[in-house]
Structure formats: C-alpha cells, structure tokens
Amino acid sequence: NLYGMPSIEMLESIDFFDGPTIAAHVIWPTEQEIPILVERKVGVIHNPTSNMKLASGIAPIAAMLDAGVRVGLGTDGAASNNDLDMWEEMRLAAFLQKIGLMNPEALPATAVLRMATSGGAEAIGLDNEIGSLEVGKRADFAILERDPYEVAPIELADIPVWGTVLAGRVHPVE
C-alpha cells in the first residue's frame, strides 16, 4: 500500500495491464483485485516452493481459478527453489491450497495438471503453440515406466524414464 492502494489496483490505475502481462507469485491479491486479473487477461504463474522457502504466504490459487484467472505453474529460480522439480511443484500446489483453505478437496489433481500444461500455456499466451498434445502444436513430454502392480508408495523421481519427446523427436534413455 505504498501508493495508497494494493499493488494490482495501483498497476491497473496506470494502465500497466494494457499489454500482455505475466505476473509471478501474486500471493496477496485482494478480493477486488482478482476480477482485474480476469478482465485484463493477466497470466499468473504460481511458484509454491519459492513462496514457501521465502515465507511469502499462500497464494489464493483456488479462488483465482474459480474466478477465471489464467494460472500456470512454475518453479521460479534456483535461488528460491533448490531443485526446480515440476512434479514437486504440482504436489505442493495442491497441498498448499488444501491446508490454506482447510479443505481436502481444494485444487484437485486435474486442476494442478492443467496448471502445469494447458493452463500454463494459456497464462503465458502460447496456448495456440504449446500446452497440449494436438496436431500442429509443439510438445515435449516424458514417457514414464511404472510397474502396474506396484502398491508401495514411491517417489516420482524413482520411476524409470523410458525416454523423452522433444519437439517431436524421440530421445530414448539408455
């Protein structure tokens, strides 16, 4: 409130959102500011590990998604996230909303996966080029191998990677 109003309202007052805008973190928007993000088509990138490491707070991601904000998932930089692990970001994004709202159904896995894929592409304005497996779109993905009979909990990092596909080229892991 350095300028007598919350940050998103202040940025709106100077027409900051006139051009394409991607906003990282967005941890403390007010209820009045969330509709501004929707109206101005601001892409929000949620960085849960960074927000936790820096004790910044819990972003109201479920509320932003419910309102129609374009939300993607990121890792931030190495200085505020020690491993840049998107699998962990997905897990933490869901857990933070559940504990923050005291609701075990907040931000289900399908919503988190969307944030990490097509929602993220939409948030950065590239949804016509990336974010989903469709003809004509660029796509990178990993092919994971998992024993279908495995019942013991395992770490995602322990699942063998069969290979990756980067921009349509298959790269088997030896």
Question: If you had to describe this structure to a student in words, what would you say it looks like?
Answer:
By secondary structure, this protein is an alpha/beta fold. It is 32% helix and 15% strand. It has helices at residues 7-13, 34-39, 48-53, 61-67, 86-101, 109-116, 118-123; strands at 22-24, 43-46, 70-73, 140-144, 161-166, 169-172. The protein has a three-stranded parallel β-sheet with strand order 1-2-3. Strands 4-5-6 form a three-stranded antiparallel β-sheet, with no helix packed on it. Strand 5 (161-166) and strand 6 (169-172) form a beta hairpin. The chain starts with 6 loop residues before the first helix and ends with a strand. The mean pLDDT is 88.
Question: Any key phrases for this structure?
Answer:
single chain; 174 residues; alpha/beta; three-stranded parallel sheet; three-stranded antiparallel sheet; 7 helices; 32% helix; 15% strand; globular
Quick structural overview:
With 174 residues, the protein is α/β, with parallel strands linked by helices.
